[in-house]
Every structure is written in structure tokens, then in C-alpha cells.
Amino acid sequence: ALIDHVARVDWSLLDRVPGDRGGSQQVSFEELDHILNEVNALILPSHDDPSPVRTMAGGSVANTVRGLSAGFGISTGIIGARGDDDQGILFVNNMSFSGVDLTRLRAKKGHTAQCACLVDASGNRTMRPCLSSAVKLQANEFTKEDFQGSKWLVVRYAQQNLAQIIEAIRVAKQEGLSVSLDLASFEMVRDYRSQLIALLETGNIDLCFANEDEAREIIG
Predict the structure, then answer these.
(1) pLDDT tens string for the chain (220 positions)?
(2) CA distance linking residue 19 with residue 134, whole number of Å
(3) Which of 53, 64, 105, 219 is the one with CA 20 to 30 A from 144?
(4) Which residues, in sequence order, are bridge partners of residue 5?
């Protein structure tokens, strides 16, 4: 589970954020807090937008299943873990409101992952996720029941979750599911390209989503 803090910002603020503009780079909790404080200090609230930051359930998989459920009426669920904090409760409330089945979402003691999502005037997003101390499922916690009754497994490529991804795909394939993979960010593809190619070459990925930057990194 992940909570997004979404803010529309200009380039002057992005220039003060470490890392490549338009990509995704992990930060510590202190760095995330600093970024959000910078946003709140530099972007004044308006009548139409009283808060410069919108906080909501996020993450590419959660956004995908929420869109399928709320936008298209497709039955969806999410397999994962959320913390026993305010962010975890917000995640549950947001996803439940969109009709996503949360019976496979485990509550664990600890923090829910968070991410600063900085959107520039062109709509490009600079993501700074804070995942270091966040709760998550381990590879040995997946069960066949998590996947039964589903047609598709939707996963996001992430080196820090590669063991979980490989195990989820293995169980999903045993249960007859198709697998969709989102390539996450151009930095993730660039830094862990060989592992990604090995995953794609297993033949277990039925559908792969990549934007131009991610595709450019993987095909070289």
C-alpha cells in the first residue's frame, strides 16, 4: 500500500529536489518531509485549491485496479500490506470507496509507504517514494487463495520487491492467470535492466506497459 502526496509545482522547486526530473528515486522519511515542507512553503493556497498538496491512495497497481473498478465496473482486488497508521487507514478508505476488494490486503504493525508526486506544468511527474521502513508482504506470504477467481495479475517492476514479484507470478501462472507488468520508471529500468530482461525472457509476462523513457532504456 502506498499514499501519494500530489502537488503541482514549477521548475524552480524541482531544481531543488535531488535526482533526475521526471523520474522516480527513493528518499528517506526526512527527505520526504523536507520536500513536502518545501511545497507547502513555496505554493500558496488559493480559493480554488486551499491545499497545495492532495493526499490519497496511490501506486501504479492501486491506481490501475481502482480505475478499472470505479471507471469500468470491473471486479478488482489488491494483494499487499498496509501499516497500522493514519496513512494505512486512508488507503483503505480510498480504495474501498472505489469498490476495490481489500480482503487480500493485510494490516501489519508499522508504517505505510508514501510518495511525493510533483507534477509540472506539462503534466510530467517527478516521484520521490519513501519505502525504506514501510510494511510489505514477503514472498512466502502469498497463497493460492490470493489469486483464485482472477483473470489478471497486475504488478509493478521494482528491484526491492523482485522476490515477491517472481513468486506472485509463479503462483498466478499456476492458477491460470495472465500477467501484466508496469515498468515503473526509467531509473528502475536503467539501474536493474539485466534483471528486468531476465524476467521478461521467462515468457511469463503477457502484457508490458512502458512509457517512451522506459522503453528507450530497455531497448538501448
Answers:
(1) 999 999 988 877 888 887 778 878 889 989 999 999 888 887 756 666 667 889 999 999 999 999 999 999 999 999 999 999 999 999 999 999 999 999 999 999 999 999 999 998 888 888 999 988 899 999 999 999 999 999 999 999 999 899 999 999 999 999 999 999 999 889 899 999 999 999 999 999 999 999 999 999 999 8
(2) 21
(3) 64
(4) 55, 116
